[in-house]
Amino acid sequence: MRTPPIDPNRPSSARVYDALLGGTHNFAVDRSVAGRIMEFVPEIGAIARANRAVLHRVVRHAVAHGVRQFVDLGSGIPTEGNTHEVALAADPGARVAYVDVDPTAVLYARELLGDDPRTVVVLGDLREPGAVLADPGLRAVIDLGQPTAILMFAVLHFIPDGAVLDAALSGYREAVAPGSLLAVSHATGGADPAAVDRVADLYNRTGTPLVPRDERQFAALFDGWELVAPGVVHGPRWHPDPDDEPVENPATFLTLVGVGRR
Ligand SMILES: C[S@@+](CC[C@H](N)C(=O)[O-])C[C@H]1O[C@@H](n2cnc3c(N)ncnc32)[C@H](O)[C@@H]1O
């Protein structure tokens, strides 16, 4: 994939999310969208942090269950507790491929990772599993003959229903070895559907449409995978750690999480 230019005048979902997490790799146009989202959902920072926390728990869970390779699709701009940091802390032999379509995310991830042979950063579109998984850099790090966790955190809600989504999901499912995992976090209406609709409207106007899904629609993303316990739940309820922010915060229920095993 040819690297698209970084456009400082057009918001990007990667940089907006970075702004929501309090990062500095964003432009005024991204901060403006993030500010509007905060007006609609004041707890959005807590939601984003809860999303990162469940990503960490999923990675540790995968390693504990013998899966030590990760393909992190829509990985975003590096932030505190990146997938490779969590995975390598759990198992120094872990391998992580980051994949993002946004050149800012790829630029900063490459800067952070340097030339650690256990990690790679690929510029790619997750809707093209054939191209993503054939990337020579990814193949140098990830052995698809071994169980691999496919991570899609806070990204599938940018892909509308249809043949492209179906083909992407089946492409990853068919490419991975038995014992592999699919882990997804996703925006949902949850406790406050009106707020999520307003955020979706905002994203639609930025050129990155947001498609929140309900539990039934979310569960359908796991067709062909066996959902592991506790099944489809709101993010904070997926194997919570005692240190996480309290699950009583209703705003953090705007995210669904599931992990499937092949
Ligand atoms: C909200 S961020 C989530 C980052 C990280 N996965 C997390 O949960 O903390 C969404 C990321 O998905 C990326 N993205 C959106 N559409 C994509 C696509 N079709 N292929 C690859 N990445 C995509 C965006 O560039 C952005 O970095």
In short:
This is S-adenosyl methyltransferase. It contains ten helices and eight strands.
Describe the protein.
The chain is α/β, with parallel strands linked by helices and 262 residues long. It has one domain (13-261): 3-Layer(aba) Sandwich (Rossmann fold), CATH 3.40.50.150. It is 40% helix and 15% strand. Strands 1, 2, 3, 4, 5, 6, 7 and 8 form an eight-stranded mixed β-sheet that branches. Strand 2, helix 5 (103-113) and strand 3 form a beta-alpha-beta unit. Helix 1 packs across helix 2 (28-40). Bound molecules: S-adenosylmethionine. S-adenosylmethionine binds next to helix 1, helix 3 and strand 2. The site of S-adenosylmethionine (SAM) has 22 residues, from helix 1, helix 3 and strand 2. This is S-adenosyl methyltransferase. Pfam families: Methyltransf_19 (PF04672). InterPro entries: SAM-dependent_MTases_sf, SAM_dep_MeTrfase_SAV2177_type.
